[in-house]
């Protein structure tokens, strides 16, 4: 699996998130508590941009209609829609690396 550098731990922790464009898609790297999570940034409801969403308790909330998604799994808490696609994430010292493409099934999307 090809990995790319997404940023530094301190930078993402300070801002709470970082937005990247990978293969033409927006991907967010989120810091919540001690965990880091990488997932797509398009709400499954109407395609709203989740990069402006509020993050509380491991959940990002869509700023348009309030759909909530778990950062660790990408699962929608408000509807039986498809989950957000996750990217594998590794901490390498103070650097955050994520998979270039999304991962399937149970592959990790977070690292503590």
Q: Write out the CATH superfamily name.
A: Rieske [2Fe-2S] iron-sulphur domain
N-to-C span:
20 Å
Work out the helicity level. Answer: under 10%
Largest β-sheet summary = 4 strands, antiparallel
Radius of gyration: 13 Å
Task: Summarize this structure as a short list of keywords or feature phrases.
single chain, 112 residues, mainly beta, Rieske Iron-sulfur Protein, four-stranded antiparallel beta sheet, three-stranded antiparallel beta sheet, 1 helix, globular, disordered C terminus
Describe the structure.
This protein is mostly beta strands and 112 residues long. The protein has one domain (3-102): 3-layer Sandwich (Rieske Iron-sulfur Protein), CATH 2.102.10.10. 6% of the residues lie in helices and 41% in strands. It contains one helix and ten strands; from the N terminus they run βαβββββββββ. It has one helix spanning 9-15; strands at 3-8, 17-22, 25-32, 35-40, 54-56, 59-61, 68-70, 89-92, 95-99, 110-111. The chain has a four-stranded antiparallel sheet with strand order 2-3-4-10.
Task: Tell me the layout of helices and strands.
Blueprint: E1 3-8, H1 9-15, E2 17-22, E3 25-32, E4 35-40, E5 54-56, E6 59-61, E7 68-70, E8 89-92, E9 95-99, E10 110-111
Antiparallel strand pairs: 1-9, 2-3, 3-4, 4-10, 5-6, 6-7, 8-9
């Amino acid at each position: 699996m090809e990995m790319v550098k997404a940023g530094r731990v301190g930078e993402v922790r300070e801002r709470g998130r970082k937005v990247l464009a990978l293969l033409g898609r927006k991907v967010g790297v989120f810091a919540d508590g001690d965990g880091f999570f990488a997932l797509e940034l398009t709400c499954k409801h109407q395609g709203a941009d989740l990069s402006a969403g509020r993050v509380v308790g491991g959940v990002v909330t869509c700023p348009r209609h309030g759909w909530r998604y778990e950062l660790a799994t990408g699962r929608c808490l408000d509807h039986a829609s498809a989950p957000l696609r996750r990217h594998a994430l590794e901490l390498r010292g103070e650097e955050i690396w994520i998979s270039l493409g999304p991962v399937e099934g149970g592959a990790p999307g977070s690292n503590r």
